[in-house]
Write a structure and sequence with these properties.
Domain STAS (chain B): 14-115
CATH topology of the domain at 40-202 in chain A: Alpha-D-Glucose-1,6-Bisphosphate, Chain A, domain 4
Number of strands of chain B: 5
GO molecular function (chain B): anti-sigma factor antagonist activity
Organism (chain B): Microbacterium saccharophilum
CATH class of the domain at 40-202 in chain A: Alpha Beta
Number of strands of chain A: 9
Largest sheet of chain B: 5 strands, mixed
Pfam families (chain B): STAS
CATH superfamily of the domain at 40-202 in chain A: START domain
Protein name (chain B): Anti-sigma B factor antagonist
Number of helices of chain A: 4
Helix content of chain B: 40-55%
Order of helices and strands of chain A: EEHEEEEEEHHEH
Oligomer: heterodimer
CATH class of chain B: Alpha Beta
Shape of chain B: globular
Largest sheet of chain A: 9 strands, antiparallel
CATH topology of chain B: Transcription Regulator spoIIAA
């Protein structure tokens, strides 16, 4: 093996470091109970059909792709519609960050797999509704118009979530366009049109992964809420 | 503008096709990779070896593209192997758990040997 073959690649700083189990970035965050110690679950680790879903919005010439993504990374949770809550307390999205989120009443999380100047990508943990890779990006065309895009490659994680897919899909079609509209409005673009495209990449269900149901974040969130009166109260940070 | 990736298809053994991928692997080269996979599959290959030894850069779009390629391969009952990955890219395959579906080997010869052993 030559020294050259192990030279630092150009993309090295953009990727999360390899880990086996997720550790919540902020240990004081109380919503990390469905992520801590879990593994990530990419699109090949889920159960349901594999979908590629893309939402795009033309933001015009007001902002460059790099400036847009820098702002998106710095204020990611601020652009979420009220139906979801991103519990990130870190100052900006960085590769390797592990953060809790609540959507549709279910508490789960994400890991930042990749982040560069014009894109960043999340992987979901075991138990999330979707075994997914979600990429947020911006690019400009020859005329200098910037397009913001959210693209996800996802399978429902387990048979229970798969039965809820028609409902979840409609929820996604409200949530992610809402994110793009909030992002656009923050940069002075009102009444933005969000385009959506869905492709079924694989119609098969991965029955070998039906046991993912043991990680189901919906069930675990419900159990966590039920057991709340019996848990010791958190007393906050100590000096 | 990032330099484009280049794909070269060869047939190193009966039932085996290899796709040598060089340059920058991003979602922008999806059409090229899928076309290379079509050429690789035309001869009825049951093992497709992806040779990354000349890859210079990959972003998360490249990983998404490999997931799509994997699904296409599985539809054709193909096994997909990856060779020539540096430690950096090997760790990305492990982090994303792609290594559970795409078998990693040091080189094409060992990938072919492993498949023939398993097939025996």
């Amino acid at each position: 093996m030559t020294e050259n073959s192990e030279a630092v690649p150009r993309d090295a700083a953009f990727w999360a470091a390899k880990i086996d189990r997720l550790q919540v970035s902020d240990p004081t965050e109380p919503h990390g109970y469905n992520i801590q110690g879990k593994r990530v679950a990419g699109p090949m680790n889920g159960f349901g059909r594999l979908w590629q879903r893309t939402y795009t919005a033309d933001l015009g010439t007001a902002i460059t792709p790099a400036a847009l993504v820098a702002d998106w990374r710095a204020h990611f949770g601020r652009y979420w519609p009220r139906m979801g809550r991103f519990h990130g307390s870190v100052s900006a999205i960085q590769p390797g960050d592990v953060t809790a989120l609540t959507a549709g009443g279910v508490t789960t999380g994400i890991m930042v797999l990749y982040a560069d100047d014009t894109s960043f990508t999340f992987l979901t943990p075991e138990g999330h509704m979707f075994a997914a890779m979600i990429t947020f990006s911006a690019e400009s065309d020859a005329g200098g118009r910037t397009t913001a895009q959210i693209r996800m490659l996802l399978r429902c994680s387990d048979p229970l979530f798969e039965t809820m897919w028609p409902l979840a899909r409609r929820g996604e079609d409200v949530f992610w366009p809402g994110v793009l509209r909030n992002l656009a409005a923050a940069h002075g673009v009102d009444e933005v049109e969000v385009r959506e495209e869905t492709v079924c990449v694989d119609r098969r269900r991965l029955w070998a992964n039906w046991t993912n149901v043991r990680h189901n974040a919906g069930i675990r969130t419900f159990a966590h809420a039920l057991s709340a009166p019996f848990r010791p109260r958190r007393t906050g940070a100590t000096v | 503008m990032a330099p484009a990736a280049h794909m070269e298809v060869t047939y190193p053994a009966p039932g085996t096709a290899a796709i040598a991928i060089s340059g920058d692997v991003t979602a922008a080269c999806e059409d090229d990779l899928m076309a290379a996979h079509e050429r690789a599959s035309d001869g009825g290959a049951k093992l497709v070896v992806l040779d990354f030894s000349q890859m210079e850069y990959m972003n998360s779009g490249g990983i998404g593209m490999l997931v799509t390629l994997l699904v296409r391969g599985q539809r054709r009952q193909q096994r997909i192997a990856a060779v020539g990955l540096t430690e950096h890219y090997r760790q990305i395959f492990e982090l994303t758990r792609l290594d559970e579906a795409i078998v990693l080997h040091d080189d094409t010869a060992s990938a072919i040997r492993a498949l023939s052993t398993q097939g025996a």
